[in-house]
Prior knowledge:
Helix 5 (97-107) runs antiparallel to helix 6 and helix 7 runs antiparallel to helix 8 (217-245). It is built from 11 helices and 5 strands. By secondary structure, the chain is α+β, with helices and mostly antiparallel strands. The chain has a 5-stranded mixed β-sheet with strand order 1-2-3-5-4, with helices on one face.
Amino acid sequence: MDHLNKPHNMALAHPNKKFWNWGPLFFSSFFFFPLLTNWHTLAVGNIAAQIVIYAAFVTLYGIALYKKGETVTPVLAAMALLCCLGTYITYGTHSLFGFIGFFCGFNYRRKYCFMMMAALLVVILISALLFVPVKSMYFVAPAAIVSIGLFIFGMMEQRERFYRIQQVQSEQKIEQLGAIAERERIARDLHDLLGHSLSSIALKAELASKLSSAGASEQAAHESEQVAELARTLLSEVRQAVSGLKQVGLYAQIDVLIKRLQDAGFIVEKQIEKVPLSAEQESSLCFIFKEAVTNIIRHSKGKHVKLTLTADNGVVAMSIQDDGKVKKYQVGNGVDGIKERVNALGGQCDICINSGMALHIHFKEVTA
């Protein structure tokens, strides 16, 4: 649908561009050319009348600048009437009709702007026939040509202004959607991070309370110590999560995780390539890498860890594997969270425990 067929509510004036608003009036100085060439033959009253006409026109022009859309109609009617009657005083009014033409092109929808322009041309013709009957064409030609030209420029300005507004609105919408997605990502990360640990703390605290009531003070103390340990671990993870939010993207996050592995005594081998990822894919990989590394630090008895991230033929492949001995494998909340992220990406997640623990993930890379 053509945007010019839609209602619009724009004023020509730029709030912060006063020169752009009033600068075009420089060309209205042609109004005074007949006065400059014939001033010695004109009466003082005639000269004063021309100045009054010009001042009134400039005033109406200033009002029209701030009228939105078709609310400018009464002002343009007054400007056209002023120019028509002013032609009786001076034919310099032919230089003023063009300003009205520009407003006709800018302020009106397409189905109305041509009607307004046609009405303006009729006013120009009537002004010429009534007040410049001898040299009508010398008045009509410049007035009509300038008015039509500025009318076209007005339409172009309207179109460009509309597209700029649409672009700003689109950018604002994208930013809003990005903020919503980021909030959802943070909420999901916090849920994955806190849910299991808080449940464990609640259960152990409840158990400690029951043991204490039953007189098993030693066992209750042991459970209380585990609650304290879980709380300290959870606090550390929350701090790491907050620190992770401050990192710049996936690759900075990977560097932080490698440092954590090395601090824990692991020898790390990495094969990390720059791959095209959407914001959702990058966020999911941040979580997967972080969750997998946390599991290795907690449970692996190995010494070597290999991190891989590559892309080939439109498929992104990532893997995290260590050389620890896995006697029994049990799916927990962390692995469930990883699988949920991979499913959301439309990918495949494989876990192998033949020689250590290996996590392999594949999904399609982002497309333009």
